[in-house]
Amino acid sequence: MARRRLTADSKQVAELFFDDSDESENGSESENGSDPDWFDSSEEDQFLDVIYPVEDLNQETTEQPSTPAESGTPTASSHSTASTPRAAHRSKSPRAAHRSKSPRAAHRSKSPRAAHRSRSPRAARRSIFPPQPGSSSSATGSPRSPATTPLKLHRSGRRPSESKSRFGSPVGKSRSSFRSPATPNQPDQVWKTEKDPDVAPVLHRFCPKRQPGVQLDTSVEQSPLCLFKHFFSAQSIRTLCANTNKLAERNIANGKRYKWTTINPAEMLKYIGLVLFMGVLKLPAISDYWKRKNIFSVNFPNTVMSRDRFRAISWNIHMSDPEEDVVNDKKRHTRPDEYDTLFRLKPLMTEIKTACQSAYHPRKQVSIDERMVATKARTEMTQYMKAKPTKWGIKLFVLADASNGYTCDFNIYTGKSRLISGLGLPFDSVVELMRPSFLGSGYHLYCDNFYTSPKLFRHLLSLHFGACGTIREGRKDAPNTKINQLTVKSPRGALRWIREDDLLFTRWMDNREVAMCSSVHVAYDGDTVKRNQKKKDGSWEEINIPVPKPIVDYNMYMGGVDLSDQLIQYYSAHHTTRRWYRTMFFHFIDIAVTNGFIIYRELQKLRNTPANQLITHRAYVEQLVAELCGVTVGTVPVQRRTGHTPVPISIPVARLRCEKCKADGLPRKDTSWKCNECDVPLCLQPERNCFHMWHNM
Description:
The chain contains 27 helices and 23 strands. The chain is of the alpha+beta class.
């Protein structure tokens, strides 16, 4: 049952208004264990607050009410609580008899509060508020007039007309009457159409920190290997080798059984080359790349390293110091605020992010979106997103150039407990990526409805960034007026818009209604889009319908992250592992290869390379694999030496019939030679070399 704590003033009123019969119904503290400072909200009909000055509460009432015999006039005090039918019924109850004998009842009968409770509530109120001189009630004892009757309040302190409804809004007043006049959701807002003129917003000047484009030396020919080493520097490779060797030694000391030799940077690059080779030439299992004596055998991986060596490196690849990992893991439960979830990624992840920002500066239009790295590892970072092609995985927030999909920066989502500002995950993820110290000012950001909010866009405006994106229905601070809004019966191409200072809210009817918010566009700029429309006779016709300017630019520039994801998925180095941080290691390789390919294409365009001579994505990855493994793309793999050599047939047989002559239907010819590997007798004569013909069938 709902309970409410009394204030110091309301306690005194409660002492006067609750009689003994009411208290006996609620029970004493010794029986129900309740706090004496609490009262039951079910007694609301027996308790009404009264408006009076605070100082009157502290005054002791010294005047004793006159008895009926003395005054000759019936008063409220002459009606004792014992004379009411309810009190008479309670006085006869077994519970009242039990309470009357309890020590607490004896104590209450002698307390000062008992003297007040002996009076009725009306008499107690009249003892505090005596009739005013000259009033009719003071002369005749008649009921008080409305002018002298204290105004009754609800126990919460509101007037009766202001009592709350079940939905929290005061009864008798509309919700809009309590809104601040400064809020944008004013009822007098009206959705305008494309025929109404709109004032273009004042845009911030585009001032990037660096010249947009490739930041590397364009006068030097950059090979795929040179671009890859810009992201995986020599220092990063040495750190990766050192930590991998430490983990392998620790695993062997713990009882792991496999052969291990110290890995060096050259061998690490060959390992990465084989990982990318598997991304280009996909087979069901890792062991299939080392399969022999099979029509599906692949010769190249075996010339780079053995299968067991490749597996041993894959089991021990590590980016951080294993000894420091142990120290960080101990903080997970003892000092959670100091525990770093991404500690195993930091050495390489920091280098990759720095390289992404230093090698290329984005153009004016950028986009932010989520990226999922597929894994079902049981970590606090693993997310499920049903709307994504990759539903299970680790989520990244990616900032990409809208023109080519270059990954400029990214952050890994580690959970809601890591939020900084308290304004929500979408707000924090955008602000962390849109840094004026890296970008400059005047950039236009495009994002989807997960991020778009008026609060975020106004904050970006304060940073001299514009923004545009789809917005969800019912987003806070967005217009919610229904005057002249779109309906389900609105024709295709219908357009509505509202401008609030620097923010533009548009709604457009296509197959369904599309809502947009922008700080860089006008509502309608005369753009149209073609759509197919069915006529009454059942045939189709192509029509042009108006489209808002924010939607035109959104469709053009929003796909930066999607383009980057598409390029990564073509020849991805990703494959299933037992450790989530190794999955992220392969994703870092994908980022380095994809960004390197985009830079390579940008350099070719700067040299005015014809479009038909631009390198393809597959050719770029193949060339990179060859350079990492120390070969060329046109190199024929060297065949390993085999046991197919002619050896004499042992005595006592000495000679056997040639299997090749027998297969060809020639007369019987015995030979003293056979193949050591095939164990087949074959002729080895100048006029007929069956040994050579047998092995080239």
